[in-house]
Design a protein that fits this description.
The chain has 7 helices and 9 strands. It is α/β, with parallel strands linked by helices. The chain has a 4-stranded mixed sheet with strand order 5-6-8-9, covered by helices on one side. It has a 3-stranded parallel sheet with strand order 1-2-3, with no helix packed on it. α1 packs parallel to α3. The longest helix is centred in the last third of the chain and has 12 residues.
Length: 171
């Protein structure tokens, strides 16, 4: 049903279907397969991109790597160092408009999941990474969208402190 509805809505106008994190954990349907069932649904729905949330790490890095490999859409995390499968950003063209989508996850991830789940990973400061991504995307995109899993207050702070962000889609 959800895949059919997404397909129907896409016919109306140029569309991005995005997920702002915490998709693969939290419901028995998701937890029993360590998120595999959710990725299957998201693939069927044709998601364009997802940012990792802090709970994507709850099953550990190896399980997350499997979910990323199963996804037929990019999973973003510009401020996560040490997990090569994550992309910092993508650029998609919609009706002739180049839209950059940058993914950011909260720097509190190491304390909001068990430390062993993020062993070997670093969560870099959001503002520094954001400014670096914007510089890298200058001239490559007409619109810069940040897909975040930071929380509303942190999204507002990011918008106030970092120039060049056109849109924030947060979760």
């Amino acid at each position: 049903y959800l895949a059919a509805k997404a397909k129907e809505l896409r016919k109306e106008k140029p569309t991005l279907l995005l997920a702002a994190g915490d998709m693969i954990q939290g419901h028995n349907w998701a937890n029993l397969s360590q998120g595999e069932s959710v990725i299957e649904l998201m693939n069927a729905m044709g998601f364009d991109a997802m940012v990792v949330g802090n709970h994507e790490f709850d099953f550990g890095s190896e399980a997350l790597k499997k979910r990323i490999a199963e996804a037929r859409f990019p999973i973003l995390g510009a401020n996560v160092e040490g997990l090569q499968a994550l992309k910092p950003f993508i650029v998609k063209e919609l009706s002739g408009i180049k839209v950059a989508i940058v993914g950011l996850v909260t720097s509190e991830t190491p304390i909001s999941t068990h430390p062993r789940n993020v062993a070997g990973l670093r969560f870099l400061p959001v503002e520094e990474v954001s400014a670096r991504c914007i510089q890298e995307l200058k001239g490559r995109a007409d619109l810069i969208l940040f897909l975040t899993h930071l929380g509303h207050a942190a999204d507002r702070s990011l918008a106030e402190k970092v120039e060049g962000i056109d849109v924030i889609v947060g979760g």
